[in-house]
From TrEMBL:
Keywords: Oxidoreductase. One of its GO terms (molecular function) is oxidoreductase activity. The lineage of its organism: Bacteria, Bacillati, Actinomycetota, Actinomycetes, Micrococcales. The keyword Oxidoreductase applies. This is NAD(P)-dependent dehydrogenase (Short-subunit alcohol dehydrogenase family). Belongs to the short-chain dehydrogenases/reductases (SDR) family. The keyword Oxidoreductase applies. Pfam families: adh_short (PF00106).
Amino acid sequence: MSNNTVRGMTQLTRMRLTDPLATAPDLTGRHAIVTGGASGLGLASTRSLALRGATVLIGARDLERANTVRDRLLEENRLPAERIALAPLDLIDPESIRQFALGAAHRSVDLLVLNAGISSVPLRHDRAGVESQFATNHLGHFALTGRLLPSLGRGTAARVVTVSSALYVRARMDLGDLASTGHYSPGGAYARSKLANAVFAVELNRRLAASGSPIRSFAAHPGMARTPLHTTYPSAATRLLTGAIARAIGRESDPANVGVMTAALHPNADPGLFWGPVGSKTAPDALGEPFKPIATDLATGTALWNTSERLTGIRFLS
């Protein structure tokens, strides 16, 4: 283990944790928020947290569908109704984010899982003209985190876990063309949004540590997970190809969730590492690996933070 410090974070060599959820604490009395918590990886997070006793608030765009999922989850796992709550949340809509945060303002938040996202969609823009994947996957979560920071401050050893992707290493942070006015690649735009997720997680942790806050920020990934995101690719051929790859080497959402839950709950998880599943597809260990330099570069982190504050109008830890 190295004691080198990278931007306020303890930088470790890679770390493998066997059966990482065996040490997960009892979460009775703890409060968690999971964006996109009614499908795919988010649903796996909701289930894991609720089964350990946490009260989980799901942020969802489609409340009707989310309510059906909630009812089934409660019934199948014999959970009390108050264990899982729902609230509308559209991460591309600043007013929706504001209203969601207001609804959670009265409570302490011990865990915020930034999971919701869109993948490889045709070119669209938010109201400010920002490409929709960057706006949804990064800017929406940035604004939500800023608005929820007081609630996180009232939590117990609170953590923020941002769900990124190993694809971040293939992207570059072009903050000069967030509208994607040049050539638009749906997959490339998705990778850029996942790079923004990784950079944000690192920069958030640096700023939290510098401010003396006990809150910590982590990034995690699902490996190649078989989730509903694979149905959002614009081309039928691409959907078939990515679906076939996911079926061949991928993980169902629960095993893929090991990295996220390790980052969220494991006492030895370190925010200097990028957490994901490794090994068995059905009972994987958790592997934490050092971030690539593109995610830990101080100038990139500062530029992304400043740009995000300007575009969202939400300033925090500045």
